[in-house]
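thought: fold this chain, then report.
action: predict
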Amino acid sequence: MADGACIAANLARLRLDKDLTQEGLALRAGLSRVALGRIERGAVLPRAKTLHALATALAVPVGDLVTPVRPLESVRFRARAQVRSREQILAEVSKWLQAYAWLEDDLGERPAFSFDKARPAPDELVPVAVARAARQTVDVPPNAAVHDICGLLEGGGVKILLLETKRDSFFGLSVGQRDGGPAVVVNTWDRISVERWIFTAAHELGHLLLHPHEYQRDATALPEDAEREADEFASEFLMPDQAFEGEWEATWGHSLLARVLKVKRIFRVSYKTVLYRLVQSGRETSKVWQTFQSQHRDHFGKTLRKADEPRAIGKSEFAWNWGRAGEPAGLTRHDFMEDRLHRLVRLAVEGGRVSLGRAAEILGRDREDMRRLAAEWAK
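observation:
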């Protein structure tokens, strides 16, 4: 049975994730606040009946209260503001990494981190050059778009977790090799644009290659220069200038609005990333933001948010607003899907290595949803 310290840590983390006070949770579980406080301090070991009451009040399995969670140390957590559920997110990632590693070992499938070949020397940290080298390691030509970033990262040995967290200030994180990575975690909440999901994945790959020694569990204020470097990496990785120039010139006879919307769809980036590249490269002045805004209003009858206009130039794209509602001609969830873990789970289920219940836990699904997925597997 779990010890008091383990239960105390899990209980406090889960309570904060549910945005509950001790008094609020105690009321739901039929306990006094004093009794709950003693459990959270590890002063007493709760009885089975109390554990079940607490699990029910938190809407989690009892196992989440009694199972130890391995802390992650080599992690880079990105959020615009303090995230109350930070520790719960890290706990979920830790459990996911352990399950992933177990599947890889059991099935004998663990690809090498091929992107590591693109890692620069400390005195050669040029984000654009590193992005070009990273594309070369996975055989993406310099004039080609990245059509499936999840597949590309997974093929290069990076684990991908799509974690739906209802916090628009949290975009994602990455985990270093010491903790079972390299891994990239993306917040796929439906209020954040798919273009942001894609950019986050590329941004975190940039950190894995550019800043491998800056992974610290407790860091909250990430250096602005490091964020800009990861942005530069992501922009070049997703939309290399050679390819962008060709596509941009090919649309020369269309309006600015039509050109931006076509190019953003080709490279699977936000319209903001296209406008930012136009200004940054000197192809356009900062007035291009107002021109695009005006044409969008005339064509679609509505004004886009102005939060990311000229004053954002020179700052990290991390500071932008990336709401899905503000992304014209936006992508869908099917444009950003991880494949490898789902494939490993199917192999394990069909090979009799794991039950559907365990498969549901690994994929973060409920059992009914997992049974439905298994019934819908195509040959």
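thought: worth noting. Residues 86-107 form the longest helix (22 residues).
final: tokens above.
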